[in-house]
Write a structure and sequence with these properties.
It contains 13 helices and four strands. The protein has a four-stranded mixed beta sheet, with helices on both faces. It has two domains: 205 residues, no CATH class; 104 residues, name from scop. With 369 residues, it is mainly alpha-helical. The longest helix has 42 residues. Helix 3 packs antiparallel against helix 4.
Amino acid sequence: MAEESFQEKTEPATQRRREEARKKGQVARSVELNSFAVLFAGALFLFFAAPSLVGSLSALMRHYFSALGSAPTGAGSSITMIRHVSLQILLVLGPLFLVLVVVGVLINAGQVGFQVTVEALQPRLDKFSVASGFKRLFSRRSLVELIRDVLKLALIGTVAYFAVRAEFDGFITLTGADPVGILTVMGGAIFRVGIKVILALLVLALFDYAFQRWDYERSLRMSKYEVREELKQYEGSPLMRSRIRQVQRELARMRMTREIPKADVVVTNPTELAVALKYDAETMSAPTVVAKGARLLAQKIREIAQTAGVPIVENAPLARALYASVEIGAHVPAELYRATAEVLAYVYRLRGKAHAETASEAVPGGAVS
């Protein structure tokens, strides 16, 4: 515990640490980037759809204002009319709301991906602690957020001031203009000012996103002690991992010891490497490496092969190629077919000659029947 307390968190977070933080809802997300995306999408939608929206709302208002004189009186009738008007306005503005919702979801997914978790919504006692509240109030994050908000107000105010000043000349021409002309000019001016302010927010949003990523990575850092403890917890201690690897090597050697006597040939380097090959035309599509080893293990393979009567052929290039590129239990690759076939053909010729000599000795007169 003492070691953990005094160690600095200098190590990058492991993948498991990141996954646990994500399950708890701890992700790097910029609210400013979300605000910019929603505002920009809404402004673009209004730029292209404003004439249609204004026309629909105007027609709706004219219809209901013209029907006020003949509308029935009473509280119930008024409530029904208000409800009906609200529904019609919602239908007209529905596409705008849908665009804003879709953009909001996509910008969040682009930052943190799709992750559904309720752990962040669970009540925590430290949120009601006065000490924890003061700690959060005077934390580095709070200071950065304060500076960000001040810069945000200053930036928006400055950009809006110069944007409105640039529109003054257009306002002068409104003297004596009809209401439609005034609304058209004012609408265009408001849109241009809004776009400039929104683009200014983009600069602030990018800086905020960069800070959120940096602060998130910093909050996930681990000490060397934590990395070692996590490794022990999920993968065992170094001694245990070493023991597991030793047992795996022993099991592999036992399997090879059983397979070597079944091999057709052992290709050697001649002393440094040994590779045992087996080929059965009925069950195998290509020769298979059933055992391989270097130095002491190569010597062991040769001894087992000699005891079992498996032919040993010296072919240094083929032995090196098979040892380097083919795992135990895998087929010989196509580029080594020719060299492997020559070795196997040589072994088959030796076996055929041995069988013929044995048969000639067994038949009187030395003839083969």
